[in-house]
Amino acid sequence: MNTSENLPVVVIAGRPNVGKSTLFNRLVGRRQALVSDMPGVTRDRKEGEAMLRGRRVRLIDTAGLEEAAPDTLFGRMRASSESAVAQADLVLFCIDARAGITPADAHFAAWLRRQDRPVLLLANKAEGQAGTDAALEAYSLGLGTPLALSAEHGEGIADLMGEIADRLPDAPRAQAPHSEDRPEGPLRLAIVGRPNAGKSTLLNRLLGEERMITGPEPGLTRDAISVVLDDPGGPIQIVDTAGMRKRARVEQSLERMSVSASIEALKMAEVVVLTLDATLGVHEQDLQIARLIEREGRACVLALNKWDAVEDRAKTRQAIADRIETSLAQMRGIPVVTFSAMTGAGVKHLLPAVRRAHEVWNARVTTGELNRWFEGALERHQPPLVDGRRLKLRYMTQAKSRPPTFIIFGTRAEMLPDSYKRYLVNGLRETFHLPGTPIRIQLRGTKNPYAENTER
């Protein structure tokens, strides 16, 4: 796994609640990481690109450094942060100037000195003269001159950007590629589902590294975490999201922010992998998420995780297929992939299914083919009577793809019943091989030019 460009890596590190995520958002120039007064909100590494004094960098926000046993949640969070530090070209070590130097600050400053990585010491929350005076205490950490700033209020950020740019290795000289040589952007993929369905374990398996914090505790992922996978078929930008529970059960403000980030990631994706725990079958919340994917017009792949733990696989698969068929008729033919993210069995089939779903989502049908099929569909099943008169549908065209969207023209076409639209959608899906993808039909009525004169 890496990004599409070899950018210098800047890692923000420090104990919990010193303002690392606020600083990350300030440097990337948008609210990308979740921020809360509750300590320990950040659990997984959050990445983003920032332009700092003319230098583009890959900025990484990490979980708070804490002393903990390796097999605990906080131990796994620390291991993830240490992994980020190991690849850093520059580490921004944050302390809370208002709190002063804590034993944890001193402990991790000593650890950083042994890592052989350039470190810039930041005394955050140093608003005003009192904060600047308090920042001087940070000299005792042995990491050089502390830079006083306030990420929340933007004080000292311009100086920080200059310091970062000065301390980074020289940028490699490279000619910009010609426009025809520029690669297309990566395929945008979001992994969504209920808590504890195995989304983060799946992402780790796809990347081949322990990028996300995983464990038996439900709801470990709190923010939408984006990484780029260099796949042989082309780069894929994958976003792992927080588990989405029923709205009535979402009570805390932090979880509401997590769910909002998940929904936003879904809306920005091209293909969505809806991950289910196969041992539990399809729940109503899974169907609600699937309906949201359809409403947003995204391609979808149904991922049945923990397949190795399913006893009667044939019965389970049939039960899931029946539930999908009856509850998600608008996504008929949705591709289904079975695997175990924990062991890796079957995971290799997921990305090919994603790419096929992406191709269907981008499909276009020529106007000639479309209208030959349309004429046959009208002959097989005539449009219904509306107010005693039959609707006259004249021709059809595809307005766009992503998802496939068709326009039907005809006299009073806008009055076409939903049942007939479903008949046409099913025909389109079967004839032009559009399984699983949302299909949109828009109606354009033609006005009778003599209608007004007749009414007079």
TrEMBL record:
UniProt-recorded name of the protein: GTPase Der
Family: Belongs to the TRAFAC class TrmE-Era-EngA-EngB-Septin-like GTPase superfamily. EngA (Der) GTPase family.
GO biological process, one term: ribosome biogenesis
Job of this protein: GTPase that plays an essential role in the late steps of ribosome biogenesis.
Domain EngA-type G: 8-172, 187-362
InterPro entries: G_ENGA, GTP-bd, GTPase_Der, KH_dom-like, KH_dom-like_a/b, P-loop_NTPase, Small_GTP-bd
Subunit structure: Associates with the 50S ribosomal subunit.
CDD domains recorded: EngA1, EngA2
Residues given in the record as GTP 2 binding sites: 193-200, 240-244, 305-308
Alphabetical UniProt keywords: GTP-binding, Nucleotide-binding, Repeat, Ribosome biogenesis
Residues annotated to bind GTP 1: 14-21, 61-65, 124-127
Ranges annotated as spanning the membrane: none
HAMAP family: GTPase_Der
GO MF annotation: an example: GTP binding
UniProt keyword annotation of Membrane present: no
Top-level division of the source organism's lineage: Bacteria
